[in-house]
Amino acid sequence: MAVQQNKVSKSRRNMRRAHDSLSAANPNECTNCGEQKRPHHICPSCGHYATREVIVADAVEMDEDAA
Ligand SMILES: [Zn+2]
């Protein structure tokens, strides 16, 4: 087992953790359905991207038929 050579003070520990906070997500509104979505990602609710590309919902049904 590794044993620490020096005790890390509360101050130094807290200074290290000062950079550990998570930044908040920055969602955009989907231009097609208005749902909140991640920037530069396909909309999870309607499958649109940049108002033109579409994930066809039938693709899921085709996989079910194949299985
Ligand atoms: Zn959408």
The helix content is 25-40%
- Order of adjacent strands in the largest pleated sheet: 1-2
Strand content: 5-15%
Overall 3D shape: elongated
Furnish the topology, listing elements before pairings.
Blueprint: H1 10-17, E1 28-29, E2 36-37, E3 48-49, E4 53-54, H2 58-66
The structure holds zinc ion (ZN).
Pfam families: Ribosomal_L32p
GO biological process, one term: translation
GO cellular component, one term: large ribosomal subunit
How does this model look, in words?
The protein has 67 residues and is of the alpha+beta class. The protein has a domain at 27-61. The protein contains 2 helices and 4 strands, in the order H-E-E-E-E-H. The protein has helices at residues 10-17, 58-66, and strands at residues 28-29, 36-37, 48-49, 53-54. It is elongated and about 60 Å long. The model has no long low-confidence stretch (mean pLDDT 84). The structure holds zinc ion (ZN). Zinc ion is lined by residues 30, 32-33, 35, 43, 45-46, 48.
Question: Would you summarize the structure shown here?
Answer:
InterPro entries: Ribosomal_bL32, Ribosomal_bL32_bact, Ribosomal_zn-bd. Keywords: Ribonucleoprotein, Ribosomal protein. This protein has 67 residues and is of the alpha+beta class.
